[in-house]
Design a protein that fits this description.
The protein has about 70 residues and is an alpha+beta fold. The protein has one domain. It is about 30% helix and about 10% strand. The chain is built from 3 helices and 2 strands. It has a two-stranded antiparallel ribbon. Strand 1 and strand 2 form a beta hairpin. It is elongated, with a radius of gyration of 16 Å. The N and C termini lie far apart (about 35 Å).
């Protein structure tokens, strides 16, 4: 039975079982497409999951066509 004041469990469920904005790979944090879309523009760092087109252009806000079709912008 879940207690009504169990904020630790709520935090765990939100942070560890919810959608991810980043993950760790070879000791480096990798931002997901979702994270980049939330950021709003390209950082120009050559990120693995860059959703912008053309990619790796700092401050570019144009999303790739496949991202627009998938509806990931919400």
């Amino acid at each position: 039975m879940k207690r009504s004041d169990d904020w630790i469990e709520d935090l765990y469920l939100k942070e560890f079982l919810g959608p991810k904005d980043s993950y760790w790979e070879n000791g480096r944090m990798v931002m997901t497409e979702r994270s980049h879309i939330k950021r709003g523009s390209c950082c120009g760092s050559g990120c693995k999951h860059c959703p912008f087109s053309p990619p790796y252009i700092k401050m570019n806000k144009t999303l790739r066509d496949d991202i627009k079709i998938q509806g990931l912008t919400n």
